[in-house]
């Protein structure tokens, strides 16, 4: 299980998308997903989460409504 908050949460998201075999469960609490000009979104926007490499993986993503609209 990998758990992180803020930049730790960003690590959790990146680990899930880049190396999903590392953990079975991922908990990302208010990840800094806008860091580096939203690199996480641009890098993985075409990722197919139905791919078998994500099978039997659990993600809890906690995000507050404190983000600014851009």
Automatic annotation (TrEMBL):
InterPro entries to which the protein is assigned, alphabetical: AB_hydrolase_fold (IPR029058), Siderophore_Hydrolase_D (IPR052558)
Keywords: Hydrolase
GO molecular function, one term: hydrolase activity, acting on ester bonds
Family under the similarity heading: Belongs to the esterase D family.
UniProt protein name: Uncharacterized protein
Lineage, top ranks: Bacteria, Pseudomonadati, Bacteroidota, Flavobacteriia, Flavobacteriales
């Amino acid at each position: 299980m990998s758990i992180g908050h803020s930049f730790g949460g960003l690590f959790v998201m990146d680990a899930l998308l880049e190396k999903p075999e590392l953990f079975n469960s991922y908990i990302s609490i208010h990840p800094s997903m806008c860091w580096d000009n939203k690199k996480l979104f641009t890098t993985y926007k075409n990722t197919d989460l139905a791919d078998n490499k994500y099978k039997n993986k659990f993600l809890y993503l906690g995000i507050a409504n404190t983000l600014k609209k851009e």
